[in-house]
C-alpha cells in the first residue's frame, strides 16, 4: 500500500528512527536535531537558541530528552517562559509524534530532539 502525505504545512518531516538516529526527510541524522517549521539543524544537546531564534518565535519548544523523560532545569524553563516560549519535555519518540501531529495542524513550533 502506498501512503501519501496530504496537507502538510512544509518544513522537515520526521520519517522514523534508525537505531539511535532520527530520520529527517528520509535521511538519518548522526545525533540530535533541532527542527523549526523551516529547517532541521544538527544539535549537540546543549543550547536551545536555534529552536527559539526564529523570525516569529515558536509557540513552544518540544524537548525530546532521549529514550526516557528527563525534566529540564527550572531556570531554563523560566528563561524561555519569560520570552513567551513554553518548553514541553518528553522522551524523543513522544516528541517526534507530537511534532508530526502539531505541524500537521500548521502549528508554529520548534523541537529539540536528542538521539535515542
Describe it.
The protein has helices at residues 49-52, 74-82, 92-104; strands at 14-18, 21-24, 27-29, 32-35, 40-43, 60-64, 86-90, 110-113. It is globular and about 35 Å long. The strands form two sheets. The chain has a five-stranded mixed sheet with strand order 5-4-8-6-7, sandwiched between helices. Strands 1-2-3 form a three-stranded antiparallel sheet, with helices on one face. The protein has 116 residues and is α/β, with parallel strands linked by helices.
Summary of the model, kept short:
By secondary structure, the protein is an alpha/beta fold.
Distance linking N and C termini? 29 Å
Helix content: 10-25%
Uncertain stretches? none
The side-by-side strand order for the widest beta sheet comes to 5-4-8-6-7
Q: How much strand content do the residues show? A: 25-35%
Principal-axis shape: globular
Task: Please summarize the sheet with the most strands.
Answer: 5 strands, mixed
Oligomer: single chain
User: Count the strands?
Assistant: 8
Average predicted local confidence, pLDDT: 91
**What is the structural class?**
alpha/beta
| Number of helical elements | 3
The H-and-E topology, N to C, reads as EEEEEHEHEHE
Rg value? 14 Å
